[in-house]
Amino acid sequence: MNKLFPTRLCFGLLLISLLVSCDQVEQLIKQEAKPVSFLNGTFSVLKPGSWSTMDDLNEGANLQMGNLFKEAYVVILTESKQDLDNMGMQDHSDLTRSFLREVLKNYQESQPVKLDIGSHSALRYRLSGSVDSIKIVYWHVTIETGDHFHQMLLWSLPSKFSGNEADFNSVIRSFKAL
């Protein structure tokens, strides 16, 4: 028996498993975005194909999803206007951003960008800071619908944020009231 046989066999098996793994990764990347509804089916967004729904990002969130490998995450928190005292979209955005300002060290925020998402108005801020010595970049989006305000937080590490912007934009733009 050839002395190189075990080495070649191990190399061959490693190569086959690597090819299968690459194929599985490629299939994940090619998956199409799928709608995910929340708040008893009254609202939805598209979940990028390589993302998963999650349940450990924010216990108060109505929807949580992300991609661990890309370090890309989204949570949506919805509040009824009925529970708020005559609050406008800017007021709601200011209030919800203030909670992040208290938590993040070295907090910075951009000027707001006004968005139209279907027939809904929205404000988007870029926020940055650190938690437990880890730097994080956020998009904080406030969307106003007839009876609700929706706070959408999308975040990643600074080194990965620009690579996740297409997915983040896709989630934001896909927001719908059903």
Task: Supply database-style keywords.
alpha+beta; Protein Transport Mog1p, Chain A; 2 domains; 8-stranded antiparallel beta sheet; 3-stranded antiparallel beta sheet; 3 helices
Q: What is the total tally of β strands?
A: 11
- How many whole angstroms does the radius of gyration measure? 21 Å
* Helix percent band: 25-40%
Q: Note the overall shape.
A: globular
Supply the number of helical segments: 3
The CATH superfamily of the largest domain is Mog1/PsbP, alpha/beta/alpha sandwich
Q: What is the H/E order?
A: HEEEEEHEEEEEHE
Quickly name the level 1 CATH class of the largest domain. Answer: Alpha Beta
CATH architecture designation of the largest domain? 3-Layer(aba) Sandwich
Which regions contain 5 or more consecutive residues with pLDDT less than 50? none
Roughly what is the average pLDDT, rounded to an integer? Answer: 88
Number of domains: 2
Quaternary state of this entry equals single chain
Between the first and last Cα atoms, what is the distance in angstroms?
68 Å
The CATH topology name of the largest domain reads: Protein Transport Mog1p, Chain A
Biggest beta sheet summary:
8 strands, antiparallel
Tell me about this structure.
The model has no long low-confidence stretch (mean pLDDT 88). Strand 9 (134-144) and strand 10 (148-156) form a beta hairpin. Helix content is 32%, strand content 39%. The protein has helices spanning 5-30, 89-103, 158-173, and strands spanning 34-38, 43-47, 52-53, 63-67, 72-80, 105-109, 113-117, 120-131, 134-144, 148-156, 176-177. It is built from three helices and eleven strands, in the order H-E-E-E-E-E-H-E-E-E-E-E-H-E. The chain folds into two domains: 1-30; 31-177, 3-Layer(aba) Sandwich (Protein Transport Mog1p, Chain A). It is of the alpha+beta class and 178 residues long.
